[in-house]
Amino acid sequence: MKSAAVIDKALATAMNGETIAGLVAAAADEHGVIYCSAFGRRNVSQPARMTQDSVFRIASMTKAITATAAMQLVEQGKLSLDQPAREILPFLADTKVLLGFDTNDMPLMRAPRTEITLRNLLTHTAGFVYDTWNEEMNRYAKIVNLPAARTGKLEALTAPLNFDPGERWEYGINIDIAGRMVEVASGLDLETYMQRHICSPLGMVDTTYIERPEWEGRMTTVHARQDDGTLKPIDLPPGPGADREFFAGGGGLFSTASDYLRFLRMLMNGGELDGVRVLKAETVALMFQNHMGELDVQPLPTMIPRLSNPVDLFPGMSKKWGLSFLINTEAGHAGRSAGSLAWAGLNNTYYWLDPVKKIAGVFMTQTLPFADYTVLEALDSFERAVYQSVG
Fold it and tell me: Which domains does the chain have, with CATH numbers?
């Protein structure tokens, strides 16, 4: 197939010199899958090749699936976009805004001036931030020994706000809290909810929070980019055990490129895939819209360089946020239309969905820090080749 050869060539060039250990890339148009291929190795220090069914830690690519779960409950009237979130999660009534610190390094707080809503949470305008990209939250988390959401400890969700809900945009633990709203409103933990209502219906057979023994020959290794540009395999701490108190809606899923592409195809097809309806078409259309008004997505400076580089995707362009996707307001430099949806995961996994040209793409590596320049260049090469191949 000529179109596949164009993409193969672009990715083979991007892999030259083992600057990326391995990757799986997949794409679809409105008629179905148009590309899926694997390059490189699952672990740069071992011979096993990357395969199309390799399993990745998709981190914040979990967020869009959590948002889909939340919007299913909005359809059912169990959640509402604009009700005070404390009506579902009473602990949010105690959430304060962090103003700074006194001379003894004690946090200074005040009550928020506006209510936190599910719409705020899904658009990252609620005021919750990540310590990875926010200096004050990084300092606060160290002072009070606040656990990260990935630990599965509910205490992680008691973090203060960095600003009043609706005041501005900043990336944070918002979708973790939205996921907890799903758990409370549905009466199911998020893993069970996703399996019953999203993953199983869509045939996403390898998408789950719980690592499976049968993946032993398919699991990918996360690599850390060294100062000289080489890659070093790293051992990650095990995820939450059976003592977890909640599943983090903002990250933590394992998945494959083909599974995630099925999820994107469902959205691209108005909430339905292969005769299975997951969301109403009008709900999907709503999710694709700008829900932050005049606010703009802002660049993220890094506070933890080993985890993330500074992040500014589409620099110089006004960017918006849907429920819950980054929206580029102008055509992208590598082919996607204005109004396309996208996001990513910390280990340099990426996706986009172009509702105008009906193209979706998934690009999976396991590389730290996030926004790795080499991976972003390879992602651009993949995107250009996909659009070139479909004409």
Answer: 2-56+216-390 (3.40.710.10)
Residues acting as catalytic residues: 60, 63, 171
pLDDT tens, the chain, 391 aa long:
567 999 999 999 999 877 999 999 999 999 999 999 999 999 999 999 999 999 999 999 999 999 999 999 999 999 999 999 999 999 999 999 999 999 999 999 999 999 999 999 999 999 999 999 999 999 999 999 999 999 999 999 999 999 999 999 999 999 999 999 999 999 999 999 999 999 999 999 999 999 999 999 999 999 999 999 999 999 887 778 888 999 999 999 999 999 999 999 999 999 999 999 999 999 999 999 999 999 999 999 999 999 999 999 999 999 999 999 999 999 999 999 999 999 999 999 999 999 999 999 999 999 999 999 999 999 999 999 999 999 7
**Can you give the pTM of this predicted structure?**
0.98
**Could you give the CA distance from residue 277 to residue 152 in angstroms, rounded to a whole number?**
30
Joined together, the tokens standing for residue 264 give: 């994107």
Q: For 195, which DSSP code?
A: I
**Residue positions counted in the chain:** 391
Rounded CA-CA distance 24/373 in Å is 18
Burial 40-71 (b: 16+ CB within 10 A, else e): bbbbbeeeeebbebbbbbbbbbbbbbbbbbbb
37, β-bridge pairs: 25
Could you list the beta-strand ranges (E) of 276-368.
Answer: 276-277, 319-321, 326-328, 341-345, 349-354, 359-364, 367-368
